[in-house]
Structure formats: C-alpha cells, structure tokens
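task queued by scheduler; priority normal; single chain, no ligands, no partner chains; default sampling; output format set to structure tokens
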Amino acid sequence: MENGIIEAAYPIDFRKKDAVILGQLLKDRNSVVLIGMKRVGISNFLRFFLYHKDVVKNYITDGNLHLFIKVDLNDLVEREVFPFWILTLKRISDAVGKSSLNKPIKKYIETLFLDCIQSKDTFLTIESIRKSLSKIVEQNVMPTIFFIRFDRLKDIVTTDLFGNLQGLKDATNNKLAYVFTSFRGLSYLAPSVFKKPSLSLFTKDLYIKPAEKTDANIIFKTYTDHYKLSISSSLEGWLFAIVDGYVQYLQLALIFLHETKKVIQSKDEIFNLLSCDERIGLQSEELWESLGDFEKATLLKIIRKEPIGEKEKMKAKYLWDTGLINQEGKSFKLFSPLLDYFVRQKDISSQLSVADFTKKENLLFNFLKENLGQICEREKIIEAVWPEVEELGVSDWAIDRLVARVRSKLLLQKAGFEIQTIKTRGYKLITV
C-alpha cells in the first residue's frame, strides 16, 4: 500500500472495464475527461489507477515509463489563473521528486518552481511548466497530468488557458496527456471556450457510472474493515440494493451503521433509517441541484411513471450516460431508492416553511456563534459539523448549501444574526 492509500491494495481488476478504456486512451496519448454524477466514486477509482503498482503494466502496456502527476484542484484556495498554474508546477515538481528520474532533473525542476514562486509571474510559470515537461519527455518518460475536480475552475476558464493547455501538449510532441475529472463535460462547463469541433480533437469523454456489485463489494469490505463492522449477509444485500454502487451513499451508510447500536431487522427498516439521515439527504440534494431544469423534470416524469419520448431522452442524455437512470426494456427508474425517495419528497418539502434547525444546521450555527465576529475557515467548519466524514471529504457545495439553509432560517426566526461570506476563506457570524 503506497503512502497509506487503501485503493493501492485493491485487486488489479477493480473497475476493470473503466481501467481498460482509460489505459488504452493513455497508451494512445489521448487526453480524457472522466465524467460522473457528483461523488459517484471517480476519486476512488483514480486513487486506484494512480497508485496501484501494476496499473501501467496491466492497462497501458506500451513498454514506456509513465509519470502520473496528480493536481487536486480541491487544494486550490484561490480559484484564479496564477494559483492554478503554480499548483500545477508544484505537483510536477513533487511527482518528479518521488520518481526515478536523476537528481539534476529533480533539482532543475525544483529551481524552476522556486523562481516562479518568487516572481509570481503567470507567463514565467507556464514557460517553466513547458520546460519541466519537455525535460521529462527527453528522458523517454510519458507524463500524464490528472486535474482532479476541474469543474471548480469553470468561472476562470478562458481561451488563453485552453490554448496554454494545448500548447503544452504541442511542446512535448503530444507525449503529454491530461485526465480531467468533472461532473459535466468541458463544453458544458465553458461552452464559449471548449467548442465541440476543437474539443473532439483535444479530449475523449469517459463516463463513470455507479460501481458494479463486484467493485462495490471491494469498497464495502475496505470500509467495514476500517470501521470494524460485523454485517450480516442479509444486511449487506439490502445495503447494496439501496445504494446501488454509489460510493458516497455506501460510505455514509456504513458511517451510519458504525454510529448506531440498533439491530436492523429488515430492508425496509434500514431504508427508512437511511432515507431520514440528514447527511444522505444532503447528498441527494447535491445530486438534484447539479441537474438542469429539463433533467429534473425528466426525473419527476419517471417517478410518476409518465412516458419519456426519444427526443426527451436525447435532451436529458446526461442522466443515462452517468447512470442516474437505469433502463429495463422500455421502463426507467432512478439508480438508487434513496434518490428516488428524495425526488418524491421534493415537491412536498419545498412547500413547507420550517424555521427549526436540523442537527447539522444546529451544529453549524452553534460553531459560528461560539466564534461570533471571527472568520470560521471552511476546514474548521468541516471539523465541527462533519467530524464523522472529514476523512472522506466534504464538498464546497455541501458547506455552502448548509450555510444557505441556516441563513434563511435565521431570517425566519428573526434571530438578530447574519452570516457573512468571507471570499476564499469561510464565513463569519455577526449580530444585526
């Protein structure tokens, strides 16, 4: 297991179908966009692909040395162009530092990075990235940069940034490949920049759907071992039927079982308990809010068992491509009963005006109140509100949405408090 990354110890045939396709694309030096619904398990799959020692020889099989460079854009505090490029250069330097490349090259790239940190010059940083990648390629090593959560950059993507990404590939004679992860395709994130004709030459789309049962079972075993859970075969079967391979639902369900001392007697009982859990409800809401209006309307039609025409299906193609909707013959259903339940409750809950705080909302409000007038960083909010899932990561959306709920309820309560947003850092509670 490398650096304590549990996915590095997964069986080599984990998500084999996806690994074969991704490996072949990288063998051909194609760039790829991994697209999937939010928290479906792309990060889980990529940790396996990045760190399993046998991935290259099993799935890329071109006889070359490969250098995987992971640039996690969750680490980007300021979503601006220079921080993006300097983070990319830093991760190149980090990856080279851990590689088998010789010491002069490691020192050369480290010096380029230090010079860019001092200059804070965007042009110099991009040029240093070009020099670094060219130096790597000169050693007959194939670099692949993995941009994790590229959708976080949608507001700063410009034709210049796109041009620079293409320019880096050209500078390495197309030996550089990119892997972007996003809940949507690049043309959806920035249609005026990533235009379909030029995009088709730049990247290939690979949709990552919820895990099949054999793969979900690997994840399941990893987390049951982690939480030291003893789960009966019947409860295991019920869980798989409810979460249907969606990694975040599975992880949250196992956290719930770790916390509860209740003996589960039936599938209906575990479903009722999970569907009422606030963390799972918030995850369902994040899935719902990531959809466009037409896609939401399509989900509502499906749960009402209304017919879906071919034109409608094409317009809402994303739902089928990502596995949000499963098709059996001519009938459709939502991939998980948990999301189905959330969508069915959506119309009812949207008509209610409830001012009482839920458990998570109360934790957030109390934490902000304890630090009245002080900036509460996002990381500290996660520690205070989501300590049980901190290691899995909490999305920006989940934090922002919870803050929005507390804001609206404070207005309803006429409580005399207001939550201010502190850009790039967090939130602050003040009296009004």
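post-processing summary
- DSSP finds 21 helices and ten strands in the chain.
- The domain at 284-350 is CATH 1.10.10 (Arc Repressor Mutant, subunit A).
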